[in-house]
Protein 1
Amino acid sequence: MATVDRNTSEAWKAKADDAIYFLAISGLDFTAERVREMAGSPDRPNAMGSRMKNALRLGWVRVVSFTHATRPSAHARLMPVYRGSGV
């Protein structure tokens, strides 16, 4: 994860973190797909996971359930549903 994070665009990381924080304070449940809609697709495939792990580490969000991805390229894989933790 650290290598992916180091090699990901700083501009995209800032957009993703802003989107995650915005969703976290909204009080609504969300997935990484919603973050992708707001921030755009990352330049590295694992970058979204790195940003979501960072948000968990910072206490911005917590995992409340799981759902299946809706993007066709994600092949309906299981993904966490996050909820803001009162940041």
Note: The longest strand covers residues 61-68.
Protein 2
Amino acid sequence: MSTLLNLRNKCDDSEIHLLLSEMGYPLEIRDRKVTAILEEYQIHPEQPLLGLKLHEKLSGLIGLRLLPGDEAEIRHIVVAQENRHSGIGRQLVFRVRSLLKLSKLTAETDSDAVGFYRKLGFQVTSLGESYPTRERFRCVYETGS
């Protein structure tokens, strides 16, 4: 059985730091980037950080920015390497959407993850090359769409 946890007050936990390190940041900036991400969630109450534990191990996490009304933006989502392609990411997205009663969920991503959002029913729009040689996409999921 998987458990969804509020990680906001546990941002100093090494298990959370390790999981965020799997997001693919270059080695030379990885620790600084993960520390900055965790500080952002500690400082901003409108940005929940939630994790999914499976068999007592943190298997995935999702960080959001809550927007006016019943909308949110996915800021970060990561699944432990050994749990990828097992439905953890899908669980995170849909459990958070249900828990927070969201009618609209958005994300911005690159070509590496755009397929994940498409499979979940997000509408995908290209934003062009926001970074050199990296196409970015806006992904939107609306209840009833």
Note: Residues 27-43 form the longest helix (17 residues).
